[in-house]
Structures are given as structure tokens and as C-alpha cells.
Amino acid sequence: MTEGVVASVDPGATAPPSAGRGRRGRRARRLGAMTVRLLLTLLGLLTLLFFLVRLSGDPAGVLAGPSATPQQLEAVRAGLGLDEPLLAQYAAFLGDVVRLDFGTSVFSGESALGTALGALPATLVLLVTTMLVSVAVGIPCGVLLDRGGRVTRAVVGTSMTLAQAVPTFVLGILLIYLFAVRLGWLPAFGSGTAATLVMPTLALATFAIARTARMVAAELEQVEDQDFLRTAAAKGASTRRVLWRHALPNAFPAVAAALVVEISYLISGAVVVEVLFAYDGIGKELVDAIFARDYPVVQACVFVIGVFVVVVNVVGDGLLRALDPRIARARA
Amino acid sequence: MTAALEIDDLWVEAGDPDDPLVLVRGVSLTVAAASVVGLVGESGSGKTVTCMASLGLAGRGVRITGGSVRAQGIELVGADERTLMRVRGGVVGTVFQDPLSSLNPLQRIGDQIAEAVMLHHGGRRRSHHARVVELLAKVGVPAPEQRARAYPHELSGGLRQRVAIAMALANDPALLVADEPTTALDVTVQAQVLDVIRSATRDEARSALIVTHDLGLVAEVADRVAVMYAGQIVEEGPVASVFQDPQHPYTRGLLASRPVLAAGRRRLGAMVGRPPLPGSWPAGCAFAPRCPVATGACGEAPPIRTSDQGWSRCWHPGSGETTATSRAEEGAA
């Protein structure tokens, strides 16, 4: 490290804040790597999807119906290309995916991808409200878990354990019983209005709140003994300011990283919750399609969910970069 | 004139209140207006704890059990948070040992300095930009406009410590407390940071309490020096007289164990033994087990003897011959 001989000259201490070309080059490389990762993830997902669907039964049998003659069945197979070798089918499937052609729903005759995408916004709304609630409630709970008195910590800690221990579907049923059946405050099921969003959000957020709170508490404990908190206090910052402006922001990148992963888990929780509350999202669409053996729609739904999870992870990575300037430089 | 800092019979302990670990035993120390005091001693002697506890920054589990601390006449022991907030950063600016970990990694350094100004002058952080640039220039940060936008990890250790000093000086405090301000830095950088501290004190008639184990640093910047051992101050006085004619055998040992290039000595006068840890401090004179001139009397707590303009806590003050090393100090002091 070369600190200049003359006190005011200090070369090599830092790269200038924006190092033009190099920075842009690194960003391009990062985006390239990310795209490759995204494509590989999707390829893996599609491969798994293709073979699982083939293992789960004969789509032609469903389509042709139980009373079909072997000749009819054969005709349906040929029509769907199911008489081709498996690998040829796989190649054809991938080709269709590249053209975003998932075929049409066996029952409604509409585009399978259109059906899946049409159900996505409702799920996104549910996920967004769930994340908002779990952050809004989880962070204060985490602070209490870390900073509260003995009684507060015990009460919050027990609540969080309980919240994590109760399965989502049990909680959902309890919520329906309480708020819809006994109190009559909320509709038991349905979608499209704000009221129908409340219970699915609660059912889904409960677990996420507990996870968020625990992460916040753990991260706060990590950050707690850091010298810069003492510096902030030495500047004259209040205990509250030290916590909210210095400790929590430093605890947050790790929490945010975990929250991004949490969204991937929430999607699977959303499937359960949407079915339970008859909430018309992509999870319910998927489950309905599975029971109906509507393979094109199943494939389209899984594809859309897969792309969503990958996109969330990419966005989450960018978010982390924005939150922690050190990451942006450290792993270019 | 009010002293910048008056610590009077300060007792500090940590751990279980029923079985406490005593860290500081009745320390009294005065930093007069416009004077610089060096507080020296080996690790575990309680010098850092004394400073941090005085400002209420010693951390959880460390508590003051007796005594009084006044900064510019404001009592800090038992003070409410509002008073402490006003004193910290406003009356007393603090610089810590490790300049990387003592800066918030997620905030631009300009924002961190601006926060220090804002906490005492109100307004928004952005409105103090001019002051931030002025402070950075004052501590010798080149290109202060641009550097204000840098994050701590983008700066070298020396620059970070300059930033930390700028932050401590943000509200023109009467007293600067610096805890081992150069220990974590490269040797070449140490001298530069020392220059910054010197100009912040001497040139601006600011008082300072500098905690260090570096006697050379004390010789360069301090007017008075206090030597701590086992939670007590064992000797205190003007730097020149303490370095030339140390009264306490521990002070003599410290001075003798300094490597001095020009002195041509082959062996360092290393002290025998290790400093005792808190909780295992001997009764009577805590230094007696390592002391070359200890006698039976040292089993009792030694009396305080005043000498010249200082004092020491020893049964046999000034009884050792002046060593070659301490004579070499005369030049530096």
C-alpha cells in the first residue's frame, strides 16, 4: 500500500468511484454469466418436467377416453407425436418451448401458456402482500427477539416457534373457521377482491414472519458488537438511531438474501393456500390441471413458475448488490 | 478554566454483579484545557476501559460502580441518554483503534461525517456537505469532494483513520479521545496520522486523551502521561519529567523495554513476567511480583507520593538507576 510521502498526496488508495470501461465490462460479463445460469436452470427444469410427465401416465389414454378402441388410441398417439422415440419427443418438446408453444389446453382449447400467464398476476399479488406483511411484522419481531427484555423475548420466541410449527393448511383451515364461519368477517374463499386476499396472505405470511424475525435477530446479534455501532454512539446518535440507521441496515443484506430464497419457497406454499381458499392463482391452476391430466397446462404452469423463480433470484442478486456496495466490487 | 475531562476515583466492573470482575480501581485523571494526556500501559491494564466507560461506550455488561466523570464540567456518570448524546460528538470526539471496523461499511464516508454534524446541528445530512468537504480537507484527505462519496472499503487504512478523525472533529469538540489511534496502521502511515492529531490538538488548542502503548507517540504529542497497571494509575506527571526520571519501577520497565535504534544496546531491558489479568490482581502493590525493587512492604497498598509536578503509587519511588534507554528518551521528550 503506497501512501504518499507527502501527507496530502495519497495515490493508490482507492479506485476512482466510477472506473468507466472496466466496470461496464464486468457488468456485461456478470449479465452473461447470469443468462447462462438462467438458461441452464430452465433446461434442467424442462427436462425434469418432460420425463416426470411421461412417467405419470399416458396422456393419450386420458384424451381418448376410457372407451376408446386400440385403433383410436393409436391415432391419438400419432396425432400428439407420442409414437415417436422418447428422445425425438424430448427434442420436439424443447423446440416447442423455444417457440413458447406449449400447445392448447385439452379442455378449454385455449393456449396453455396463456392460461398459465393469465393466472400468474393473482399469485404475484398474493406473494407481494405476503412479503410486505412478513417484512413489516418480521423485522420488529426480530428486533424484539434480540433487544427485548426477558419476558418479551420469551413471548415473541414462543410465538415464532408456534408460527413455524403449524402447517400452512392447518392454519388456513383455522383461519377459515374463525374469520369466515364464526365471525363472518371475511369470505371463506374466492379471489379478485381485497377481502379475499387477507386470509391467504395471513396463512402464507405466518411462516415467513417467523423466518424473517429469526434471521433479523440472528443478524443483529452478529452485527451487535461491531465497532461502527460504537462510533455512531460516539458521534451522539441515540440508541434507537444506532439500531435503525446502523445496525439494521447492516443486518439487512443477509436478511434480504434469505428473503429472496424465501420467495421460492412461498411459491410452493402458495399452491397449497390457493387451493385451500379457492384463490384463482397459478398454483390452483396447476393443481386443477394435474387432476384433470391437462398436460399442456401443467407444463406451461411449471415453466412459468420456474422462470419466475429464476427471475426472482436474479433480481434478488441485483438487490443485494444495491444494498451492499462491498459485494459489487468483491465478486465482479 | 474548566478542565476538559476530570475523572475522579472511577471504579468499573463487568460480569455477574454478585461476583464482579473489577476492571478499573479508583482511577483519577485530569485533562486540563488545551493539554494532551497520554494514557499508557500494557494490554489488560484497563486504559481503554477507563476511556470508554467514561463516555458510556464500554458495551453491555460493563458498568461504573463508583466515581465521577466530568467533561467540560458536565457529569457523565449516571447521566441520562440526552446528556450523553449531547456530550458525545459535541463536547468529546472519539477516534477508535481499527479505522475499518469503526466505519459503517454501507454508508459513504461523507454521509457518516455529515451524520455527526447533523446530530448536533440539526438539518439534513445533505445540507452539511460543505462542512464535510472542509473537514476532509483539514485532516489531509486529498480530493475531498470525490472522496466524500467513497465507501470505507475503497480507502486505505491511513485515509480511513483520517476520516475517523474528521468525524470526531465534526462539531469542534473541546476534547478528543483517541483509543490506540495508530496501532492498526502501517508504520509510515502512523507518522502522518500523528501529524493530523497533533495539528488538531496543538494548533487548535484542543485537549486530548490518547490511549496507547506506544511511548514514542506519547513523547511526540502528549504534555502529560499517566501510566496504568492492573486497573490503577501508578504514575502520572509531565512527559518530560516522567520519561527522564520515572518514579515507579513499572514506568522504568516500560521505558527500558522500548527498542531504541540509536542507543546501540544489544539487549532490551524486557520486564520479567506478564501483566496480571483482571480478576487475578495481587493485593497490595499489583506490580510487586514483577518488580526488581520489591520488598516486604509491597504487600500493603502503596502510598501516593507526589514528586515534581506528578505523583506515583510506590513504596520505593525513584529507587532504580536511570537506564540508558530512558536517558535516550530525553531527546525525544
UniProtKB/TrEMBL annotation, chain A:
The keyword Cell membrane applies. It holds the Pfam family BPD_transp_1_N. Belongs to the binding-protein-dependent transport system permease family. This is ABC transporter permease. It is a multi-pass membrane protein. Residues 120-316 form the ABC transmembrane type-1 domain. SUPFAM superfamilies: MetI-like (SSF161098). It is found in: Cell membrane. InterPro entries: BPD_transp_1_N, MetI-like, MetI-like_sf. Residues 11-20 have a biased composition (Low complexity). It comes from the Bacteria. Residues 1-26 are annotated as: Disordered. CDD domains: TM_PBP2 (cd06261). The chain crosses the membrane at residues 31-53, 124-145, 157-179, 185-210, 251-277, 297-320. Keywords: Cell membrane, Membrane, Transmembrane, Transmembrane helix, Transport.
UniProtKB/TrEMBL annotation, chain B:
Residues 308-333 are annotated as: Disordered. It comes from the Bacteria. The keyword Cytoplasm does not apply. It is a peripheral membrane protein. GO terms for molecular function: ATP binding. Gene3D superfamilies: P-loop containing nucleotide triphosphate hydrolases (3.40.50.300). It is found in: Cell membrane. Residues 5-255 form the ABC transporter domain. Its main location: membrane. InterPro entries: AAA+_ATPase, ABC_Ni/Peptide_Import, ABC_transporter-like_ATP-bd, Oligopep_ABC_C, P-loop_NTPase. Keywords: ATP-binding, Cell membrane, Membrane, Nucleotide-binding, Transport. The keyword Methyltransferase does not apply. PANTHER family: DIPEPTIDE TRANSPORT ATP-BINDING PROTEIN DPPD (PTHR43297:SF2), OLIGOPEPTIDE TRANSPORT ATP-BINDING PROTEIN APPD (PTHR43297). Belongs to the ABC transporter superfamily. This is ABC transporter ATP-binding protein. It comes from Mumia xiangluensis.
